[in-house]
Amino acid sequence: MDIRGFEVVSAFEEQDINLPTRKTTESAGYDIECAEAVTLEPGQVVLVPTGLKAFMAYDEYLAIHIRSSMAIKRHLALVNSTGIIDSDYYNNEENEGHIMIALLNFGKETVTLEKGERVAQGIFSKYLLTNDDDATGVRTGGIGSTGTM
To answer: How many domains, in total, are found in the chain?
Structure first.
């Protein structure tokens, strides 16, 4: 049985989505592409669809980071600094676990990202629990479904 990896969400199955890959043997991150072209005006925040979902063990998460070239050359940043994809986000009822990249254009020029352009990288990681952890909730939705407070 596979422990971790990526799949294409059903809404993008026929849209030629590439599964993330590492470019070198020592790369930590899997490059994640845009599933469709998007344009960001200066100061604008856009949720960029990837067409992907990720599966992993219960005690792991997928950290989403901006590619350094996007930040330095294109003046784009992740709105939340680092995106966290929890293992129970996979196949949730609301959006099937579709990974969306929240980007901010902090530059002075309009930026257009083309379908297939590598925009972010995902790094799988383990996490630890406290001795008195008592979480019992079950995820039922997508982004923001665990509450705002």
So the answer is: 1
